[in-house]
Amino acid sequence: REWRIAFLSVIILGVLIHMPMMLRDIPNHDGLDSMHFDQNMIVSGRWFLSVACGISSYYTLPWLIGLLAMVYLGLTAVLLVDFLEVEDTISVVFISGHLVSFPTLSSTFAFVFIMDGYMLAVFLAVLAVWLTKKKRLGFVPGAVSLALSMGIYQAYLPIAILLCIYGILMLAMEKGDIREKFYNILHYLYMGILGSIGY
After folding, report:
1. Which of 44, 93, 164, 190 is the most exposed place for a label (fewest CB within 10 A)?
2. Does residue 36 contact residue 60 with C-beta atoms inside 8 Å?
3. How far apart are CA 141 and CA 144, in angstroms?
4. Angle 70-159-46 from CA coordinates, rounded to 5°
5. What is the number of other CB atoms lying within 10 angstroms of the CB of residue 25?
6. How far is CA 108 from CA 35, 126, 179, in A?
7. HEC per residue, the chain
8. CA–CA separation, 64 vs 96, rounded Å?
9. Per-residue pLDDT tens digits of the chain, which is 199 residues long
10. Which is nearest to 81 in space by CA: 140, 5, 159?
């Protein structure tokens, strides 16, 4: 139930908030040069960006790119709500609304030609931490997810780091065997190190 609410909240609020950019392209300094751009940014360390943006098109198609970005953010909200163990409906909507309207993330929508790729990077960063917490050896696929996220855009690494810190604090407050807690805490470290090496 919380997953559905999170996903639909992002889709509805995201379309309402970002509709001006999704219905027309208001190009900025980068956008004018990127009406068709294969996003080959290996020199900037963004070796997976071309694949991520190629899912929609290398052309600037604001409605298609915008809807795909909303789907990625909707899935991100689902993972966040599950990771944070939020069940209250109002809190779920609040988290989803913040995710889709937060100024730093929203500013990415000014770069229509690349926003689906960047929102996929956000999703992969959150997925990395979610896998680490939820699966027994989740730090392994989590590391792959983190490497791909950084391969799209390195700026979303802090999202993964902050969620790891929060996950560690949640573990520390739980009752249970200290050795098992320490073992689980190390999984976040393993995911970060292996993900960085993979990147």
Report:
1. 44
2. yes
3. 5
4. 75
5. 17
6. 16, 17, 42
7. CHHHHHHHHHHHHHHHHHHHHHHCCCCCCCHHHCCECCCCEHHHCECCHHHHHHCCCCECCHHHHHHHHHHHHHHHHHHHHHHCCCCCHHHHHHHHHHHHHCHHHHHHHHCHHHHHHHHHHHHHHHHHHHHHHHCCCCHHHHHHHHHHHHHHCHHHHHHHHHHHHHHHHHHHHCCCCHHHHHHHHHHHHHHHHHHHHHC
8. 21
9. 999 999 999 999 999 998 888 887 677 666 556 666 667 778 888 899 988 988 887 777 888 888 999 999 999 999 999 999 999 999 999 999 999 999 888 888 877 888 899 999 999 999 999 999 999 899 999 999 999 999 999 999 999 999 999 999 998 888 888 888 888 899 999 999 999 999 9
10. 5
| Residue 122, amino acid | V
Residue with the two structure tokens 């609040």? 94
The whole-angstrom separation of Cα 11 and Cα 43 is: 34
Which residues make beta-bridge pairs with 46? 41
Q: CB neighbours (10 Å) of residue 24?
A: 10
End-to-end Cα spacing for the chain: 35
Do the Cβ atoms of 139 and 132 come closer than 8 Å? yes
Q: Which residue has the tokens 């997953």?
A: 3
